[in-house]
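INFO batch 0412 | record 1 of 1 | parsing
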Amino acid sequence: MLNFTSLPPLSLYIHVPWCVRKCPYCDFNSHKSPDELPEQDYIDALIRDLEQELPSVWGRTIQTIFIGGGTPSLFSAKAYERLFSSLRALLPFSPQIEITLEANPGTFEAQRFADYRDLGINRLSIGVQSFNDQSLTALGRIHDSKQAIKAIETAHKVGFDNFNLDLMFGLPHQTEQTARVDIETAISLSPSHISYYQLTLEPNTLFYQQPPQLPDEDPIIDWQIDNQQRLAEAGYRQYEVSAYAKDDQRCQHNLNYWQFGDYLGIGAGAHGKISDAATQTVTRRSKQKQPQAYIEHSAKSTVVLCEEKISRHDISFEFMLNALRLTDGFPTALFYQHAGIPISHIDSALKIAEQDGLLTRDIHLIRPTEKGQRYLNSLIELFLPQ
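INFO prediction complete | emitting tokens
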């Protein structure tokens, strides 16, 4: 039995499933956009989807919003204006709300992004991936390095002082030198946040079926360590496995995920996780994945594809799976607050991890050591349900 004395913070994730074209490494729910995007029908569906979710979150305030994809910057500012008008009518927003929109440099238009800013979108996540044209071509991206740099300069110009750059390493044709140039170029453009992670070949992607030639693994690890040090020297502090931020500009939406907060998920293929104090349960929901099926099902109130209660053992594992990604760890009390379970429930696994030098803990804080961060998968496995 769970025992929530209070509920975790609540976020909202909105999925926009279309891209100009599908990248060969992408395993997200994304689809090649039709000649004419069904903006109005999709916004209608999102609003209906949210209305169907409202009974599960009555009285709760939205702390963060993340619009992901796909390529959300394909949608017009007018479409988002209508969406946000409904969101604000249906849900209370925190006065300090963080609202992030993912953007592709190939879809950047200054006026459109100025309009996004006027709507209250106050953070961007720009999918650069690399500043090397050969690597970008191999990744199937629709932009080149000049467009990427122009997009970032435009973000600054129209007033976004808080934005993330997505960068990958271990790319086709990449060398130690070109990997460093990517980092130096990113730093020179002064984003507030950088996501820096290795390309992985995920199942159900073209790269998985037809693997490209990638650099050897051992040199890649050395590049990563050297470039992490360079980011630190430039003032980007690592706070999660692949996240680096200046000052206090960490991504609040992702922090809510990593701290096992709650989130509504609306849109084709979106996932959500909601805690309920009345029933002392945690429920996951996922939505219809195909865009047209999602639109049609939203009109019939059958947009939920799957719904399941999370077991007590799975909750404790999922909490640790997320929270141990944070380099500073998490307050010990957060486990009880967000999982509804006493920390004693995982005491035996914590003892083993501590004995193996994978984490440190006291009454106030549980934190992975450098060894624990290096062997994160081994650390997380200790908390698998028995």
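INFO post-check: The chain has a mean pLDDT of 95.
INFO record closed
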